[in-house]
Amino acid sequence: MANLLGVVLFALFILVSVSLHEAGHMLTAKAFGMKVTRYFVGFGPTLWSFRRGETEYGVKGIPLGGFCKIVGMTPQDDDVEPGDEPRAMWRYPVWKRTIVMSAGSITHFALALSALWIMAVAVGLPNPKFPSTEKEFLAEPAVVALAPCVVVENASRPCQAGDPASPAAQAQLRDGDRITSVNGRPVSSWGQMLDVVRATPPGKATVDYVRDGAAASTTVDLAAVQRPPLGNPKGTTSAVSAMGVALRPSTPQLIEYGPVGAVGATADFTGNMAVQTAHAMQRIPQKVPALWSAITGGERDMDTPISVVGASRLGGEFVANDAWYGFFMLFVSLNFFIGVFNLLPLLPLDGGHIAISWFERVRSWLYARIGRADPGRVDYLKLMPITYAVILIGGVFTLLTVTADVVNPITLFPR
DSSP string of 106-141? Predict the structure, then answer.
């Protein structure tokens, strides 16, 4: 039930985001005097609507987005009634059209930044110094956090009835103890400790540690488990020893900020997110074969793109596991990605309309400088084959990601 609630809640958040996106277009267009005839949430048959002034507002039956109808978006539009010609969008200065067309993405950015600022003040943002790679984790000091049990097989799952208790807990080790040696072999990092423990036969072993600055020693009855080699999680498993502890990083994972400090922290985090988003978009073509493999029975790559369906399923997992921080961080990431993607200079995206507007403006300026007549507006009809190609590619890719998210979804929590 909690999972279903999370799925519905995240889908609702996405619907609200998209509705606000269209509201951004509508409000800026109205502010400049452009004529907006319709603003609807959803697609398909109309469930409910009302008219206020010259605009019809309403809700449609398929809650998969929304739309805003601005009269005369292109010179070829035939929706301009007699007397409304001066209010057609294409007749307005290019800077006004740019603001209207970018208002949707700006709304997504505003949602993401607002959520990040609130998180920075309330619970904190990820610490940039927190280890993020396996190499960095293995280099951390061997400070431990007790695990409730030892999972004997090579599996990432919660403890279950019948799992052996943590040997370290039975030996009276505590969270925060720093291991210094095992059977007389000194260790200074988490990676060294794992190497030494795994190389020690199961059974009793002397463990030296430091607690609150004082050195101490205890005997730990190491458990026998199956694990792959370090650095190769997909390698062949073998019988090794385990102490029943997890790494306790020396740096905090989150840093809380005051209202003023949160502004700078939000800006820094957003900058990093922009770089990651750019890299992710560059890798999309490379991930298509991995998506097809996931659909046809292969293992789902955690780094493959996801659809709104996949994002909603992950939202459900976060709620079911009481991981609300991940839920809202996913909301932030998705809004930021949609905002960036929508500004790509491709029709029918908003970025395509913006690119054409500025192309027209620059071309007119150049022709005026060389004494030639203004070539006028771009004929959108001639661009329709390119537009249809973009729609087709986007539709196929969307179908591919949705199918993968249904038949072989990404999961972040063990089941």
Answer: HHHHHHHHHHHHHHHHHT-EE-TTS--SHHHHHTS-
Q: At how many degrees (to 10) do helices 2-32 and 308-320 cross? A: 130
Q: Could you tell me how many residues make up the chain?
A: 415
Taking only the tens place, the pLDDT of each residue in 174-194 is: 999 999 999 999 999 999 999
Residue 78 neighbours by CB under 8 Å, 6+ apart: none
What DSSP line would sit under 296-320, residue for residue? TTSPPPTTS---HHHHHHHHHHHHH
Active-site positions read: 22
DSSP string, 70-114: ETTSSTT---PPTT-GGG-GGGS-HHHHHHHHHHHHHHHHHHHHH
Q: Which of 121-130, 228-237, 318-327, 380-389 has the lowest mean pLDDT?
A: 228-237
pTM: 0.85
- Residue 283 and residue 70: Cα distance in Å, rounded? 35
Q: What stretch of H or E contains 352?
A: helix 350-369
Whole-angstrom distance, CA of residue 245 vs CA of residue 192:
14
Q: What span, in angstroms and rounded, lies between the C-alpha atoms of 144 and 273?
A: 31
Beta bridge partners of residue 205, listed in sequence order: 220
